[in-house]
Specification:
Helix 2 crosses helix 3 (129-140), helix 3 (129-140) runs antiparallel to helix 4 and helix 9 packs antiparallel against helix 10 (277-293). The protein folds into two domains: 8-170, Ribosomal Protein S5, domain 2; 176-303, 2-Layer Sandwich (Alpha-Beta Plaits), CATH 3.30.70.890. It is of the alpha+beta class and 315 residues long. The protein is 35% helix and 27% strand. A hairpin with a 6-residue loop joins strand 8 (260-263) and strand 9. Strands 1, 2, 3, 4, 5, 6 and 11 form a seven-stranded mixed beta sheet that branches.
């Protein structure tokens, strides 16, 4: 196998929201916001190996070399297939709509995009979805966002015999999500550092029940269960020490009629769930009012879950 010069691949990858309250590191869902990355294999004899143009999120900030997360994942995927693109560079065009460092899976999206692009570059069908997920977890450290970005819909993830396992199904058609996206980025490593090494046994039991309710809510369409399912005791109380606005923002969403509200991933985005557009608009307005009171600049967006995962086109 080899990479033909001039081959162009386009990958459309959704944003994701992980945890969904109590499902820490095991639940995630794709959202109808996407990054679109196009890459072309070009001859490389001298000069930069990566020609990068970015519009939207990350414009002017993302590195234009082989350490770029997308390019590194692309080349990792090629090595996995024993393809070594000597003498090849990459012309990369990114149209990014997923905010960076806001808990919406931006890094997982480009990791998945790079791996899928690698498979498409050699004709497709070489790397299985299971192997792509495993390689993404190798790069990301956690399977939740990667699974939802790759497969779309609502995903339950676990590690089985040392390998990531994801089960995906369609989210309820009535589900509407409200995002409050602060201007403040939060680094995942900092939010991980806020977590304890041990938690009280009663809190672990609580989260097992609440996360199970979340799965039941999404599987059955009984969205009223999200009120209890999004009450977390394993990570949000500790992350609130770094992000003190968090409990006040989720409380404001609930008071405005949200079926549930939680930190999206490691934040800083807050996600709230409703079952109709009008309720979503009310919750969005309440989040903006509370954010203004807290002097937390940001914006509210109303989005739907995305049923399908990453899409690949060979151009």
């Amino acid at each position: 196998m080899s990479v033909p010069l001039g081959r162009r691949v386009r990958v459309d990858v959704p944003a994701t929201t992980a945890n969904l309250g109590a499902g820490f590191d095991v639940l995630a869902m794709a959202l109808d916001i996407a990054n679109v990355v196009s890459v072309e294999a070009v001859e490389h004899t001298s000069g930069p190996a990566v020609d990068l143009e970015v519009t939207g999120e990350g414009a002017g900030r993302l590195r234009a070399n082989r350490r770029n997360r997308f390019v590194a994942s692309l080349e990792r995927g090629l090595r996995e297939m024993n393809v070594h693109p000597r003498g090849i560079g990459w012309r990369v065009r990114m149209d990014n709509r997923i905010p960076l460092s806001r808990g919406m899976g931006s890094s997982a999206s480009v990791t998945v995009a790079g791996l899928l692009a690698a498979d498409a570059m050699v004709g497709g069908g070489v790397l299985s979805a299971e192997r792509i997920l495993a390689l993404a977890v190798e790069a990301e450290g956690h399977p939740d966002n990667a699974a939802a970005a790759l497969l779309g819909g609502f995903c339950v993830v676990a590690t089985v015999d040392g390998a990531p396992c994801a089960v995906r199904f369609d989210p309820p058609a009535a589900l509407v999500c409200v995002l409050f996206v602060p201007e403040r980025p939060l680094a995942t490593r900092d939010m991980r550092a806020a977590l304890p090494t041990d938690v009280p046994f009663r809190n672990a039991i609580h989260n097992v029940g609440a996360a199970s309710l979340a799965v039941a809510a999404f599987a059955s369409g009984r969205l009223e269960l999200l009120r209890a399912a999004t009450v977390d005791r394993l990570h949000e109380p500790y992350r609130a020490t770094v992000y003190p606005e968090l409990p006040l923002m989720t409380a404001a969403a609930r008071a405005a009629g949200a079926l549930g509200a939680a930190l999206s991933g490691a934040g800083s985005t807050i996600i709230a769930f409703t079952d109709d557009q009008r309720a979503a608009e009310q919750v969005a307005a309440a989040l903006c009012v509370e954010a203004a009171r807290l002097e937390l600049p940001g914006r509210a967006d109303i989005v739907r879950p995305r049923a399908d995962g990453a899409r690949v086109t060979v151009e």
